[in-house]
Amino acid sequence: MSADRPTLAPDRPRSLVHHPDFRRLWAGDALGQLGAQLTGVALPIFAVQQLAATEWEMGVLTAAEYAAFLVIGLPAGAWVDRMRKRRVLVVADLVRAAVLATVVVTAFTGHASIPLLVVAALVISAATVFFDVSHQSYIPGLVGLEHLVEGNSKLQATASVAQVVAPALGGVLLRVIAAPALIAITAASYLVSAFAVGRIRQRETPPDPATRRPLRVEIAEGLRFVVHEPYLRRIVVCTSLGNLAGALSAAVTVIYVLRTLDLGTAAFGAIVSAGAVGGLLGAVVAGRLAQWVGEGRTIPLAALLMAPAAALTPLASTGILPAAALLIAGGALFGFAVIVYNVAQVSFRQRVCPPPLLGRMNASVRFIVWGTMPIGGLLGGWLGTHLGVLPTLWISAAIMTLSALPVVLSPLLGMRDLPGGPVAPVPTRDA
């Protein structure tokens, strides 16, 4: 970082809303989140309703959205640690905007197809890998370690607001405009996001190229840190199993809502929005909840809440209560639990990791926890085709229940405070 612009001056205002560079990052993130959520509504509906996607095709599309985390997730962290992270964020936004613009053009000219959407999802997935790793690694240096929880809470709250507004807005707009028009709005939002992030004034000084070691050595250091840090290791196992269950469910959820339950696009948007309302509440109370319950205990308790929330989705087909009501309740509870869990565990891993390892640590975590998602998407598509949509959702709920065990059956449940530095020595290897 340049010496003429410190991360936070000693007399800085207490809130990050007064931090100019954080505001620029916050604005760019908000625009990108809004557009991404609109695409998350428009793309699967476009695939199911206009391209008549099957369960297997939806599974492949879901897998493509996360495939890059499995394929390039590990080297991306080492690459990011060698780059200016702000520049990576801007380029990733521009790539996603260009790809979505291509989808829009092909849709309006009648050349859209499921294979095209899969290719687009793969490219966007690769750009998202670099964006997310850079984003999480950028926050500590931008706001300071003592403001990590506040910064993460604000960004999580913004994501939750976007998740509330976008699905409801998308459900209404899809009654009067085509799905490709919503995707076009997303492309524009990425362009504006790139502009906002590009205005951040703080300058980064990348590591001296002379200090670089072989890529495999740097990748191995990040992966070893994750594996050797005892609390982080349990969190990663929990998150990876939960994401496997979530992707398995996501592969068939749109078909379940639109075809099996016949609830319509407006109801689908309302259901997704309800989940985001829970997430927004979680982002607002996450900091206070960690102070009240304890940061350590928050992680396993939030993981436990995800299991009953996931079970409410297949229960919606039983007729015990109106299907939409159960889906809304389950989504709200799940969104709350996920955001509370994420604020606690992301802040912990940012704080516990030495700054030079941040990019590789985040990439290693993403490789493991997001790498299960393309597997879950393909598995969900296969199970949906051969067993049916409803059994697939019950299998997802069972895996979600098992995912909580690594953190529930651990010292985390009895811990109020999490460590502020590495619990285990940082593993290194000479070049």
UniProtKB/TrEMBL annotation:
Residues 182-431 form the Major facilitator superfamily (MFS) profile domain. PROSITE patterns: MFS. It is a multi-pass membrane protein. It comes from the Bacteria. It is found in: Cell membrane. InterPro entries: Bacilysin_exporter_BacE_put, MFS_dom, MFS_trans_sf, TM_effector. Keywords: Cell membrane, Membrane, Transmembrane, Transmembrane helix, Transport. The chain crosses the membrane at residues 58-76, 179-197, 235-258, 264-286, 298-317, 323-344, 365-383, 389-409. The keyword Protease does not apply. This is MFS transporter.
